[in-house]
Structures are given as structure tokens and as C-alpha cells.
């Protein structure tokens, strides 16, 4: 006898995922001079050789469209001092406005904008895209990287920001 497996409501999954602590990133892209970005917590390294990272971006978002059209994206790993930037790119500034206004940025090989002050910036070329539910998984080959490890990471857990505390050794 087979048992039918049914899904759960989206809000229940959201509540469950709030129990997962993660770092905070801003994913950016540029296409035909238009740049955009959004806060993304679904980010992971998937291979060292070749150097590959994965992001998950909701379909229908402006950043999704730009990544799909350009084939490039950047990931800025945010530090604890960048909570306001996380909020800004998470939608406190609407999609149609310039979320980069007034912020210091830099570029690497692809021309994608990275946010200054982050822990690292990874410049990626899309080598795979997989539609999964209401999101697309973009696999990017890391073409270049900038690292500034002088700060602590911004952590997101249960709908709030946190930081790692230093433990004396």
C-alpha cells in the first residue's frame, strides 16, 4: 500500500526556515547598464574545483530577470555593520528605485557592482540555471573574489539580525 505525500502550506515552511541561522548576502547583477540587487540568504559554495557557488532567486523579481539576461551576478557577504544595507536590498527601497544610491561600490571582472565594506565579493558567471518551484537556482563559476576578513558576519535568525560574539581563547 502506497502512502500519498502532500505538501505543506508556504507559511509553515517560512516558520520552520526561520529556525535556520544564515549569513546575509546581497546579490547584484547588471544588464545593458541597468544594475539591481536584492538580499539573499540562499547562498552556498558547491565546488572548489571548479569554483562554483549557488544562489536561489525568486522568479519575477527584477534581479532574477537581470541575472537571466546578463548571465552574470555578484555576491557580497555582509558584515555586522551592514544591517541597514541588508534591509535596503530586502525591499525597504522598492524594486523600481536605485538601491545603490549613496552607497560606495566597486567592480571586479564582469562589471557587476559590489558593496564596499562587505566580508567578500564573489564575481560569477552563470554556468547553470534550474527552475525549481517559484525560484531559479543559479550556479555561478567564481571568476574573481575580493576578501576583507576584518569584520564579523551579519547573521539572520528568526526574523532578526544577530552577530557572533568573540570568545576569549
Q: How is this structure best described in words?
A:
By secondary structure, the chain is of the alpha+beta class. The chain has a single domain, classed as Electron Transport, Fmn-binding Protein, Chain A (Pnp Oxidase, Chain A, Roll). Helices cover 16% and strands 44% of the residues. It has a seven-stranded antiparallel sheet. Strand 7 and strand 8 form a beta hairpin. The chain starts with 9 loop residues before the first helix and ends in a 6-residue tail after the last strand. 28% of the residues are buried. The mean pLDDT is 90.
Sheet of most strands = 7 strands, antiparallel
Into which percentage range does the β-strand content fall?
Answer: 35-45%
**At the third CATH level, what is the topology name?**
Pnp Oxidase, Chain A
Number of helices: 3
Given the C-alpha coordinates, what overall shape results? globular
Rg on CA atoms, Å:
17 Å
Strand order, largest beta sheet: 3-2-6-9-10-5-4
Q: Total number of β-strand segments?
A: 12
> Would you identify the CATH architecture?
Roll
CATH level 1 name = Mainly Beta
Q: Provide the residue-averaged pLDDT.
A: 90
Q: Please state the structural category.
A: alpha+beta
Helical fraction? 10-25%
How many structural domains in the coordinates?
1
H/E element string? HEEEEEHEHEEEEEE
Distance between the termini: 57 Å
CATH superfamily: Electron Transport, Fmn-binding Protein, Chain A
Question: Low-confidence runs (pLDDT<50, min 5 residues)?
Answer: none
